[in-house]
Amino acid sequence: MSTPHTPAPALDFDPDALRERYRAERDRRIRPDGNRQYRRTTGEFGHFDEDPYAESGFSREPLHDHVDVVVVGGGFGGLLTGARLRQAGLENVRIIEKGADFGGTWYWNRYPGIHCDIESYVYMPLLEELGYVPKWKYAPGEEIRQHA
Ligand SMILES: Cc1cc2nc3c(=O)[nH]c(=O)nc-3n(C[C@H](O)[C@H](O)[C@H](O)COP(=O)(O)OP(=O)(O)OC[C@H]3O[C@@H](n4cnc5c(N)ncnc54)[C@H](O)[C@@H]3O)c2cc1C
Fold it and tell me: Could you identify which of 103, 122, 131, 143 might form a hypothetical disulfide with 107, taking C-beta atoms 3.0 to 4.6 angstroms apart as the criterion?
């Protein structure tokens, strides 16, 4: 850290050039057809929108109570949001997930051999809070799903 008396060390890269490089790479990937580039999960692709892990015919009773915060989606984003809201003192939080359980990406994707490609210690959320030590450097999807 620098103070008024100690000048910051010189960088060995140009931050503006680096930012420009990232921007150029991003722009290269933005397609003019936007969301139209994606196929809808209807017709022959309709089965991709079904939950193969839910009990057939599964449904839930509607809830009519009031909560302070509704989080849509029970993947890592929703789970972390819920955890941080609890830490901030909000108890009345509901996560709404269209799948039959939590995990998001790791709920839906269970093909053989799936592992994370970021080290588990960095990728898996709330390890310290839950006292969990990943078993693998790059955890299998099932370990990640169970953790969620
Ligand atoms: C196969 C695969 C492997 C990946 N591996 C890695 C990896 O190794 N490292 C890495 O950093 N990232 C990886 N990713 C990226 C991964 O998606 C993110 O790391 C992270 O899990 C995304 O979490 P999320 O909560 O933002 O989204 P998601 O995990 O997609 O969760 C969103 C959830 O919201 C639910 N939902 C959406 N709309 C609604 C609605 N209207 N009502 C109710 N529920 C809704 C969905 O069902 C889903 O469960 C991978 C992604 C895929 C697909």
Answer: 103
